[in-house]
């Protein structure tokens, strides 16, 4: 059995599930969280109890090291799994930069949109000299949640998750390093492809914002994807989806439409996006967020919609629908998400042509 030294950055729902599962698969796991109080029980017990449906991973995952010291967490790591909200990617990149070492693999779970591009830009700004491999997943491999201070539950493990390195030429090496534990990861072509196939950008912010009154009056006590998706709401989702796919096309990418994704992921179809969503029985019973102070706005607007809109505006695609949702998110949260988000200037790609951007993500040829 191959055993690698993994460090999991983040001890939220996903990080705890991943750390426990990796440990149960016989890997040496270090768990980092910036607030030690959140991992104190795990440190005291020496691991995490993991539950899952029949046939899934179950047991006590022994964690080799539990720490809030970023230098200590990276010291012996071969593969670094970053499992935090994408709004924290830039900060964790800054924290990691002084301590990274040659040949380490950094994998963002997931990158959202332009996550790896942002991460690399920050490492460059911090003058990080380590020759690392950097990659991002298109989506998070687990549906999971925290069941207690040292307990986690996995509801489902996705069967196929696209993954892409920056540059894309490094993707085979990253896949080979983790295939013994995660054969589900497949070649995602490049990080523009994974970032523009970000379905959370289509579904989460607009659906939350357009149901703002109902969320506040019921504290989320309604079926989010069923009662929340009326024909008119679905029209807005379809508009955002069409703009996203058009932006991808302008960059030479064939992105999946939301309808195609629903068919691929859940084997459901419909004449319209409204019908397809309502034909997905797995959405029934999922309630809305209980508050508007939720990652569906605070994370998905700046880390998904802002870079998608910025790419559209840079390369001549109308993004009126996406910009409308960004503006409403700014108003609801009294926050300038354009300033806080992943703008092309922050990503270091604002002056690149389509061909230059493509060469950068594929071959790393452009010094940005």
Features:
alpha/beta, Rossmann fold, 2 domains, four-stranded mixed β-sheet, 15% strand
What does this structure look like?
- The protein is an alpha/beta fold and 368 residues long.
- The protein folds into 2 domains: 5-189, NAD(P)-binding Rossmann-like Domain (Rossmann fold); 197-361, N-(1-d-carboxylethyl)-l-norvaline Dehydrogenase, domain 2, CATH 1.10.1040.
- It contains 18 helices and 12 strands.
- Strands 5-2-1-6-7-8-11-12 form an 8-stranded mixed sheet, with helices on both faces. Strands 4-3-10-9 form a 4-stranded mixed sheet.
- Helix 6 links the parallel strand 11 (161-165) and strand 12.
- The longest helix has 20 residues, at 231-250.
- The chain is globular and about 50 Å long.
- The mean pLDDT is 95.
Average pLDDT, all residues: 95
Task: Tell me the domain tally.
Answer: 2
Q: How many strands in all?
A: 12
The second-level CATH architecture of the largest domain is 3-Layer(aba) Sandwich
Strand percent estimate: 15-25%
Radius of gyration: 20 Å
Low-confidence runs:
none
**CATH homologous superfamily title of the largest domain:** NAD(P)-binding Rossmann-like Domain
Tell me, what is the CATH class of the largest domain? Alpha Beta
H/E series, N to C?
EHEHEEEHEHEHEEEEHEHHHHHHHHHHHH
Helix content estimate: 40-55%
3D shape: globular
Computed structural class? alpha/beta
Kindly identify the CATH topology of the largest domain: Rossmann fold
Note the gap between the termini.
Answer: 40 Å
Number of helices: 18
